[in-house]
Please model this.
Amino acid sequence: MRRLTRTVATAALATALALVSACSGSDSGDDAKGGNGGALEKVTYLTSFGNFGRDSYAWVAKEKGFFKEAGFDVEIKPGQGTGMVIQTIVGGQADFGPIDLTGGLLQFGNGQAKDFVAVAAIQQRTMAAIATVEGKGIASPKDLEGKKLADTPTSVVRNLFPTYARLAGVDASKVTWVNGDAQALIGTLAAGTVDGIGQFVVGQPTIETVTQKKAVLLPYSNVMQDLYGNVLITSSKVAKEKPEMVKRFTQALMKGLEYALTNPQEAGEILKKNVAAANVAAAAAELQLMAAYVRSSNSGTQLGALDSGRVAKSIAILQGAGQLKQNITPDQIIDFSLAPKA
Model:
């Protein structure tokens, strides 16, 4: 990291500005009719965390016409983690977006958020992780003690850390967290101002591209194997009043997800077309890594499926770690009638 200058951090900030300004899709000039000839319904979609390859499937769904065929004119905006995505959707400024399911359970179970429901799984296993680079002296969870980590305040990686630390044998009180912006986190790591960052495991290619060092990741799934990753959410109001619309949007997004995983290079190029600062190779590599998390042996072949029993296990893990202030059940946070069936 010492070989890098402040230029890296400055470039990261510039990248963040470019990503925000270029986040909308490319087919806004299309005619306003969907596949059935009706008027397109305007929808605002938030990504999970900035504009990385892991979220490129939304742009794929837009670029390939899947949203339009389903009757939607979709505007895509960058999210800033689970808490922000929930707040924006519940507040009515967006209609759909992915959050980490565990983060959603924490928010709901601790009275920090309500009035949202999950309607599909994006990843069958959590991709949450602590990321660093070689030379920081971090090779195992215990090595995090005495280190400084950065993440957004509402990120699931940060909010789930006490449970991860407890299960991994780490004294969480010896780890310092500082606030960071979603798009600037990797630049902060590259600049050497922190020892590690909250990140998804698929961020490895981007981390190595920006830092020019080998990434080291500590996946939460190594100690918490039952946790889902991202899930698609909407507001309870929209789910109740427009269930068929929710199903149509979910199906279109799942088409984009499947296409992106099957064609990662093309998906990276589509992301680059819509987000000027994106790196095609890094985006494609993220999707290749993510594929193993989207499907799993216990999810069947249907993308998006959610299992009540597995969600109950996730709740039990958080309750056992003392991270939930109130008892909750899977159907309080997931609308299984709207989710794809396994």
